[in-house]
Amino acid sequence: MIKKLIVFASILFSIVSWSQENTSSPYSYYGLGEIRFKGTEDVRAMGGLGIVSDSIHLNLLNPASYSKIKFSTFAVGATSSFSTLEANETSEKTQRTSLNYIAVAIPIKKFGFTFGLMPYSSVGYKIENNVTNTIDNTERNKRNTGNGNINSFFLGSAYSINKKFSVGLDVSYNFGEIETEYVESIYSPIILQLRSREKNLSNITGLSLRTGLFYNTKLNEKHNIFTSFTFSPEAKLTSKNERNIATIIYNVNGTELISTPSQDIPVDDQTLIIPTKFSFGAGMGRNNKWLLGTEITFTENSKMKNRFGEIAGVNYENSTRIAFGGYYIPKYDSFSNYFSRVTYRAGFRYENSGLVLRNESINDYGMTFGLGLPVGLSKINLGFEFGKKGTTAQGLVQENYFNLNIGLSLNDLWFRKREIN
Q1: Who's near 25: CB < 8 A, 6+ residues apart?
Q2: Exposed/middle/buried for 143, CB within 10 Å: 0-12, 13-18, 19+?
Q3: Alpha carbon distance 407, 385 (integer Å)
Q4: d(CA 132, CA 189)
Q5: Exposed, middle or buried, 2 (CB in 10 Å: 0-12/13-18/19+)?
Q6: CA separation, residue 180 to residues 28, 175, 186, 373 (Å)
Q7: Which residues form the signal peptide (predicted)?
Q8: Which SS3 state, helix, strand or coil, does residue 24 take?
Q9: What pTM was estimated for this model as a whole?
């Protein structure tokens, strides 16, 4: 069965890799793009609550959890997102599928070691605006498009000081390219067609760190108290920027052709900021039965910058994220009823993203549900998320979305010493 799941995970990874369109949000135009959620699908299904550590699930939100893993673990997750973008009494539907993470954890006595790859942020938008001058019948079309990712390759380690307390550290190398294009077209009875194009490319690299603490203790014979703390200091990314302008035309097949020699324009490189972040969470529950908890995260987003300098009407503020959720297992060791061993999860989250447009804070709300389906030592985690981001006030865009998440946590005992009786 494990071999079949690994084959399925490989197929999933291949499909998602070929269809990577990680976001369709117009808000990904700003800053470093749309900051991606770093947790696994089981955590996401509890509203993003990252206070739990166990022997078979990787908790990528807190590196201190790695020492709690008791089996060698391969984890992969992906999301299909279906969104409706609303603005000025118009709407448009979008769909995307993206890889959320791929990670491996290896336990060695009181230590746990993890490495993997996940997107840190994503850019993907297409915005068009048409304006007609009724006096001279001139029509202007403005189109903004962007795509790209900042990815993180991470190495992590954790140590269990005792049964109650563990500490951990992640080191991430962040890298990626973001390309944006601005095309303005003019049509008039005199000028049949004129298009100018500005293309920008940002090559982004840099290191970042994250530390974590886990503490759990017994409240009584049956119930436990769980606490979690993480801290990520401010990190700097180098954005090497390029700009090219040209006059363009399109042939009958829609292929872009340069009608005049293109010109490279010198632009300054930028030092971008991954802001300071810290979180604290706590909860109460019974092992292999139920858990309820909450977590709050603060991010110093007021220091965020755009890749090519300031943008009029755009500001940043410090952000807050609140998650509340939990899980329930009817009977984890049931032999007669499979659904009694299923983990049922639910949660709610609220996030002030830190982005302020036209004096409107861009907020994100979501409700989540999920199932953890046991397959031997492994789990297939399914999640469903309904949410809303942004607002239609001040001519902005509101995103109503539904996310379908699937994650695999494949576990086995590696490096076992064989014994012959």
Answers
A1: 34, 83, 124, 125, 389, 399
A2: middle
A3: 14
A4: 13
A5: middle
A6: 11, 17, 20, 41
A7: 1-19
A8: coil
A9: 0.88
Alpha carbons 60 and 78: distance in angstroms, whole number:
15
CA-based angle 366:369:372, to the nearest 5?
140
In order of their start, the domains of the chain are 2-412 (2.40.160.60)
- Written as six digits, the tokens of 295 are 């977590």
- For tokens 């709610």, name the residue: 348
Neighbouring residues of 157: CB distance < 8 A, sequence distance ≥ 6: 63, 66, 111, 112, 113, 114, 168, 169
Q: Enter the tokens of residue 196.
A: 């100018």
Name the residue type at position 42. Answer: D
**Three-state SS for 6?**
helix
- Here the tokens at position 195 are 């298009």
Measured between alpha carbons, how far is 165 from 50 in angstroms, rounded to an integer? 16
DSSP β-bridge partners for residue 410? 74
* Assigned token pair, 319: 């952000």
| 16-34 as b/e: b if 16+ CB within 10 A | beeeeebbbbbbbbbbbbb
Per-residue pLDDT tens digits for 210-255: 999 999 999 888 899 999 999 999 999 999 999 988 887 766 566 6
Upper half-sphere CA count for residue 272 (Cβ side, 13 Å): 27
